[in-house]
Design goal:
This protein is mainly beta. Helices cover about 15% and strands about 35% of the residues. The chain contains five helices and 30 strands. It has a six-stranded mixed β-barrel. A four-stranded antiparallel sheet has the order 18-17-23-24, covered by helices on one side. A hairpin with a 2-residue loop joins strand 17 and strand 18. The radius of gyration is 22 Å and the shape is globular.
């Protein structure tokens, strides 16, 4: 399990950065590969696997919260829901001198960049060799008193080196030495950007499923994330549909800009501020005021979307969660609204584990108009067309809501983010978005 961070780039001559911080004119783009891309899975199997990954997170959360309340506090339990150990999208990367190629999971819920390192005392399988620090001319272990070491949530010291340990809530964990390295962003045949002194975790004790990758790249709001270390602190991505052969794209720095996004709908760019949850500062919380189906506002108390005093609850947007998980009261309101709007018998689809489904196709004499789904944010409305929140299960033929209920808050997943270009501006603390054909931008 050996590796770290990579990214595919745009700039012409190779640019070298003496420290891990880019200037405002530097940026790059990279390809985002879905974890099931290139497989022979059917549409139903792809959806079932994505739902199962999300359900595993919630099951782990509920188990932890119920079975061990004296040990697992609410904040630790909440982290389980956005664990990166079963992430959804991967990026390519190179690390070290000479640069070595790896793949890593994009993690918008955490800030740490890490890979598995040799000699590995306990490591998971990965498609590339473990990173060998002794073979890199630019590897430097960080001392215990360094500012980057102090940025860890629980730093430790071993033989005067900074040691980290991260748990992702389920069986996943990583532990090792925090170090600096040179990262090269770009494919071998293209122009590259090199950044020195990028801090990362060189893990020698690791566990969990890395989805055929070699590590993780943190895009969270913390000081050790890639976006915080490199700057300017903004990035954007545009996710193609699950069945599209075209990969998704991620844009970094100066290229993270929605002004030129090609959108056939003519919809304007909208923005809403991020909220800061002191208990979970690395995650992207949003202020949601309500939900509509079409033009009908659903009767949901806005407090169900609020962050509680203990840090639980709230609404997170996350690229690593597949379907959206709605707080239980909000989910029940959506279910009732759909049953009222869709004149078809309601059922559940046990084949893929979704609870709100309708017999499909409709009878010849029945006209069905599935309404748009609207998240009402502070200052913005995110309108999801039916294909972004409903799906057809191919074995049963049912039309199902691609969302599930949970009692621990709300997470807007990547199925609902398809064909939206989303910009995360950390420096100014807001999320911007616009509908876009992600397979051609």
């Amino acid at each position: 399990m050996a590796s770290l961070v990579l990214l595919l780039i745009l700039l012409l001559p190779t640019i070298s950065l003496p420290v891990a911080h880019c200037n405002d004119n530097v940026g790059f783009q990279l390809k985002l590969t879905h974890v099931d891309a290139g497989t022979s899975y059917t549409k139903l199997e792809l959806l079932s696997r994505a739902i199962a990954r999300s359900k595993a997170r919630v099951a782990a959360l509920q188990s932890a919260a119920v079975s061990a309340p004296p040990v697992v506090d609410p904040i630790t339990a909440a982290r389980v829901l956005v664990t990166a150990s079963s992430g959804e999208y991967m990026v390519d990367l190179t690390i070290g001198t000479p640069p070595l190629y790896y793949t890593a999971i994009m993690d918008t819920g955490r800030d740490l960049i890490w890979t598995q390192c040799a000699p590995c005392l306990l490591c998971s399988d990965q498609p590339t060799p473990y990173f060998d620090a002794k073979k890199s001319a630019t590897y430097r272990a960080l001392p215990c008193r360094s500012s980057r070491c102090a940025a860890l949530s629980s730093p430790s010291c071993f033989k005067k080196m900074c040691v980290y340990q991260y748990y992702y809530g389920d069986t996943a964990s990583t532990a090792g030495v925090l170090a600096n390295e040179t990262f090269t962003f770009g494919a071998a045949s293209s122009t590259k950007v090199r950044a020195a002194n990028v801090s990362f975790g060189c893990g020698s004790l690791n566990a969990g499923d890395l989805a055929n990758s070699s590590g993780m790249v943190g895009f969270g709001r913390g000081p050790l994330s890639l976006v915080s270390q490199l700057g300017p602190s903004r990035f954007s991505y545009c996710l193609t549909s699950y069945l599209s052969p075209t990969p998704s794209r991620l844009y970094f720095g100066v290229f993270a800009n929605l002004n030129s996004t090609n959108t056939s709908s003519g919809s304007p760019v909208q923005s809403t501020p991020f909220l800061i949850n002191p208990a979970l500062p690395n995650m992207y919380f949003l202020s949601v005021n309500g939900i509509s189906l079409g033009t009908k506002r659903l009767p949901i108390d806005p407090l169900v979307f609020a962050i509680n005093d203990d840090g639980t609850g709230g609404v997170i947007i996350d690229s690593g969660t597949s379907i959206t998980w709605l707080q239980q009261d909000a989910y029940e309101a959506v279910r009732r609204g759909l049953v009222s709007a869709i004149p078809l018998p309601a059922t559940n689809d046990t084949d893929i584990g979704l609870d709100t489904c309708f017999q499909w196709p409709p009878p010849p004499n029945v006209t069905v108009m599935v309404p748009d789904f609207v998240f009402h944010f502070d200052g913005a409305n995110m309108t999801l067309p039916p294909e972004n929140y409903m799906l057809i299960a191919s074995t049963t033929g049912y039309l199902c809501l691609a969302m599930a209920p949970t009692g621990v808050g709300t997470i807007i997943g990547n199925y609902q983010q398809q064909n939206l270009h989303l910009l995360y501006d950390i420096a100014n603390s807001f999320l911007s978005f616009v509908p876009a054909p992600c397979d051609i931008i």
